[in-house]
């Protein structure tokens, strides 16, 4: 892992008496693509605004490169923001938009011209210098917003749901573009989104947030494969979250049947939740399955079939390339390493765990 | 500190705008007939106001003209806005340009131009001519407040209503009208206010012996304003203020509930 | 939408033709003819005679001054109001429209009471041992009356234009290194131009053409061009001369309309 660049220490913030962030701690490293992921109102945008300097935290400190920048105004911070809905200056040309920050820094004209050309090349919009923002499509405006931010050579680029207003196809294209730009620039990206697919596709590190707390921090793989609680499991992809009992290490009782698993350290006879991803549920002949059930719904999804199986009083979501028709009796098998054990939250507060990387 | 200065600034501007109103309300309780002296507190003018037929007739004229002209302007303006929806950009911008003329033109020019029109058409000056003039300068206010709503209108909801079997008229009143209503209401209110406050155009288009409050006050200025006039305007102002406070309190409650 | 719905505009078209276009045509007709009906430019050129030119100059001077004062008072106020991000947009508009429900002649008259030598303001000033204000019956009082009457028409378009600016656009400017002053000059001011133009129009034109305020607060000795035209119509009954002078006024209105259509293409700076 690279050197730490930003530390958010014990950040709290409330609006109108409503707690938005509660003692949040987060470290961001150099050259890292960090995504803050969560449903609306989870505090991700507030976190970004605190980083950018547009919102002051009630409590806590923001440390940037070893320096406390909590009370430094946005125009004195070495990071730049790409805003939701672009926030381009509609009364200026594209070139003037991009040059805005450089002119403030009193750069020479030739330097500015070079930078504009370089930035437009980076975002694939060469030759757009003299257009007005209103004449550009949403995707193009988004690229200009990025170009305008990166010409200032920030150490960190903050992106607030930058793809939110674009349609699906364009969004997917822009995801690859963003990864390419980040690699080319070699700077840190802090990205806010509610779209789990975006987060998994682009990030080095995903920070899942809910109700002002960080739920889990980790690589996309670990967030997906080893969700630490039901919220993360449910928010990232489809999943079967089943109440179960941990009998002993590596053995769990799911709906009355003993399953082998790989997790340890949950104690004996403790109630837990297990997460099984729908693609990890294997449907077999009834006699071969560990438990038995009946297919109740079937949808063709293109890559696979999605089925619902009623078994042991639970509706299992199953994704499989093999078709099992509705009404067919099936057996269910799960490989031990595909059973993810999670602590059962005892209260709402405990559901929200604050963690560091 | 900064926010205190801001609040003081707002307060000063509001004081500037409302100081004369306060003065007039104070004067309405002044026992002395001249403005310059305070002669003690009295309700006398409020009582004699209701015996002063001239003032009451002027009040009635003012209210009737304001109501009728803004109502007519609202109907004509709203219909025009809906019609403009279907128009080509060019035709629409020409029409909007015409709409802007009474707004941008000087009241005095609008007044004399209408006066010349009525004279050459041989229309007798009176309530009718005032009414026609007020409708004319009220229509733009209606159009300007309804037009943004029309632009936001979702034509598919109208088509959906037709699709579901509604007639054109039915679809309009059930689907489009509720969306336009806030714009129509604020247009009506704006027109009503403008009509009530107008002096210049009325001055040129009224007949002899017909007076609105404005023109009555204008003639009284030379002879000295009757204190009943202060009482009347104080009454009007307080009534409107009360109404507005009531209106403003209720819908916000509703909005709050909805957003929660 | 069916083509039939275009016919819905017929009443309005007819109305604007009869009550807007034709009357303006009549002003032109009267302005360009003499009593015998013969074509003449005398009514327009009458503006160059000493008395008329003086009242036009005075009107231009006072209306320009009051427009500037209105702008300087209203812009900071509109910025404060827009920054407050009040949810009740309508409430703010109402505060500034409400005074109109009290007759404007009376309100202007009330300024006499406030400004008079023994008026309320001077009582307050003398209480604080400050020098008395002697502006009644001077051009300054007329400017005050104009500012008082037309200030709301400056505040509302400015407020609307400023409230429309996305907070993130301002944030973006700060983010790119601009301080408050630079952000104001390069971002906020240019983006509020439609409101500025609309506000200037809404103040300048009525102030230029008013004829009541000057007689109420100026002591009746200072004749503005509006007063002259009014007298031509109501007392002297020389409609031709009055129309001709009105046409001169319309030149200024026209200039203003052209300017506002250049700067405010989409009619963004509306009052409502």
Notes on the structure:
- The complex is a heterotrimer of chains A (357), B (260) and C (272).
- With 357 residues, chain A is α+β, with helices and mostly antiparallel strands.
- Chain A folds into 2 domains: 4-225, P-loop containing nucleotide triphosphate hydrolases (Rossmann fold, 3-Layer(aba) Sandwich); 282-333, OB fold (Dihydrolipoamide Acetyltransferase, E2P), CATH 2.40.50.140.
- Chain A is built from 9 helices and 20 strands.
- In chain A, the strands form 4 sheets. Chain A has a 6-stranded mixed sheet, with helices on both faces. In chain A, strands 13-12-11-14-20 form a 5-stranded antiparallel sheet.
- Chain A is elongated, with a radius of gyration of 24 Å.
- The relative contact order of chain A is 0.12.
- With 260 residues, chain B is mostly helical.
- Chain B folds into 2 domains: 1-42; 54-226, MetI-like (MetI-like fold, Orthogonal Bundle).
- Helices cover 81% and strands 0% of the residues of chain B.
- Chain B has 11 helices and no strands.
- Chain B has helices spanning 2-27, 44-49, 53-85, 89-104, 107-121, 127-152, 155-163, 168-197, 200-205, 213-223, 227-259.
- In chain C, helix 1 (10-31) crosses helix 13 (239-263) and helix 10 (193-209) runs antiparallel to helix 13 (239-263).
- The mean pLDDT of chain C is 85.
- The chains are: A alpha+beta (357), B mainly alpha (260), C mainly alpha (272).
- Chains in contact: A-C, B-C.
- Chains B and C meet through helix 1, helix 3, helix 4, helix 5 and helix 6 of B and helix 1, helix 3, helix 4, helix 5 and helix 7 of C.
């Amino acid at each position: 892992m690279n050197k730490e660049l930003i530390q958010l220490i014990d950040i709290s913030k409330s609006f109108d008496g409503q707690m938005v962030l509660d003692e949040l701690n987060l470290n961001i490293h150099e050259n890292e693509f960090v995504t803050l992921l969560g449903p609306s109102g989870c505090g991700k945008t507030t976190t970004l605004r605190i980083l950018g300097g547009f919102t002051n935290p009630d409590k806590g400190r923001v440390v940037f490169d070893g320096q406390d920048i909590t009370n430094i105004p946005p125009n004195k911070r070495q990071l730049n923001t790409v805003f939701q809905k672009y926030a381009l200056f509609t009364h200026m040309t594209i070139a003037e938009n991009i040059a805005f920050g450089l002119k403030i820094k009193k750069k020479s004209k030739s330097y500015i011209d070079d930078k504009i050309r370089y930035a437009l090349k980076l975002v694939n919009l060469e030759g757009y210098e003299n257009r007005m923002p209103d004449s550009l499509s949403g995707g193009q405006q988004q690229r200009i917003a990025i170009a305008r931010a990166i010409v200032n050579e920030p150490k960190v680029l903050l992106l607030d749901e930058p793809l939110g207003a674009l349609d699906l196809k364009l969004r997917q294209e822009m995801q690859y573009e963003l990864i390419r730009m980040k690699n080319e620039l070699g700077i840190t990206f802090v990205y806010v989104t509610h779209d789990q697919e975006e987060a998994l596709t682009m990030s080095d590190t995903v920070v899942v947030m809910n109700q002002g707390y960080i739920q889990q921090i980790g690589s996309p793989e670990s967030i997906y494969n080893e969700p630490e609680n039901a919220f993360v499991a449910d928010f990232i992809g489809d999943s079967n979250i089943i109440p179960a009992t941990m009998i002993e290490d590596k053995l769990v009782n799911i709906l009355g049947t003993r399953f082998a698993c790989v997790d340890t350290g949950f104690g004996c006879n403790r109630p837990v939740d297990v997460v099984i991803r729908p693609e990890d549920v294997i449907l077999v002949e009834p006699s071969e399955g560990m438990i038995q059930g009946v297919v109740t719904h079937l949808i063709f999804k293109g890559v696979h079939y999605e089925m619902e199986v009623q078994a042991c009083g639970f509706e299992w979501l199953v994704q499989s390339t093999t078709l099992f028709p509705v009404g067919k009796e099936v057996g269910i098998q799960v490989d031990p390493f595909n059973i993810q054990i999670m602590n059962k939250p005892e209260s709402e507060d405990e559901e929200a765990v604050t963690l560091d990387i | 500190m900064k926010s205190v200065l801001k609040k003081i600034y707002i307060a000063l501007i509001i004081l500037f705008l409302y100081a004369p109103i306060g003065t007039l309300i104070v004067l309405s309780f002044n026992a002395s007939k001249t403005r310059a002296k305070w002669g003690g507190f009295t309700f006398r003018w409020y009582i004699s106001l209701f015996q002063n037929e001239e003032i009451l007739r002027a009040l009635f004229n003012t209210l009737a003209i304001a109501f009728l002209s803004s109502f007519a302007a609202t109907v004509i303006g709203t219909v025009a806005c809906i019609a403009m929806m279907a128009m080509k950009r060019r035709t629409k911008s020409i029409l909007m340009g015409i709409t802007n003329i009474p707004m941008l033109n000087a009241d005095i020019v609008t007044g004399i131009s209408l006066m010349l029109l009525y004279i050459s058409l041989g229309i007798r000056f009176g309530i009718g001519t005032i009414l026609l003039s007020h409708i004319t300068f009220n229509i733009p206010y209606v159009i300007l407040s309804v037009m943004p709503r029309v632009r936001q209108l979702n034509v598919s909801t109208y088509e959906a209503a037709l699709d579901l079997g509604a007639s054109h008229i039915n679809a309009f009143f059930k689907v489009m009208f509720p969306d336009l209503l806030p714009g129509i209401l604020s247009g009506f209110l704006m027109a009503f206010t403008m009509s009530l406050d107008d002096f210049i155009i009325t001055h040129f288009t009224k007949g002899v012996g017909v007076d609105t409050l404005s023109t009555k006050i204008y003639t009284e200025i030379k002879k000295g304003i009757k204190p009943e006039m202060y009482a009347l305007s104080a009454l009007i102002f307080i009534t409107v203020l009360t109404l507005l406070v009531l209106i403003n309190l209720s819908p916000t409650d509703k909005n709050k509930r909805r957003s929660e | 939408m069916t083509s039939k719905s275009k016919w819905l505009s017929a009443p309005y078209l007819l109305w604007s033709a009869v009550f807007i276009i034709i009357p303006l045509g009549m002003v032109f007709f009267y302005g360009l003819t003499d009593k015998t009906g013969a074509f003449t430019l005398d009514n327009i050129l009458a503006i160059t005679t000493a008395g008329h030119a003086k009242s036009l100059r005075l009107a231009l001077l006072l209306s320009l001054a009051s427009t500037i004062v209105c702008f300087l008072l209203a812009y900071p106020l509109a910025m404060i109001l827009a920054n407050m991000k009040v949810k009740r947009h309508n409430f703010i508009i109402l505060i500034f429209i409400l005074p109109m429900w009290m007759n404007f002649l009376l309100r202007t008259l009330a300024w006499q009471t406030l400004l008079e030598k023994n008026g309320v303001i001077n009582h307050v000033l003398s209480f604080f041992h400050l020098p008395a204000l002697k502006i009644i019956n001077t051009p300054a009082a007329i400017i005050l009356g104009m500012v008082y009457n037309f200030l709301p028409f400056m505040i509302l378009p400015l407020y609307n234009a400023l409230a429309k600016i996305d907070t993130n656009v301002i944030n973006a400017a700060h983010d790119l290194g601009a301080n408050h002053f630079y952000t104001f000059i390069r971002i906020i001011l240019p983006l509020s131009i439609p409101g500025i133009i609309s506000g200037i129009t809404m103040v300048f034109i009525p102030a230029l053409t008013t004829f009541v305020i000057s007689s109420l607060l100026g002591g009746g000795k200072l004749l503005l061009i509006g007063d002259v035209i009014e007298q031509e119509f109501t007392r002297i009954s020389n409609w031709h001369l009055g129309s001709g002078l009105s046409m001169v006024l319309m030149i200024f209105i026209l200039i203003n309309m052209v300017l506002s259509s250049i700067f405010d293409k989409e009619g963004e700076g509306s009052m409502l």
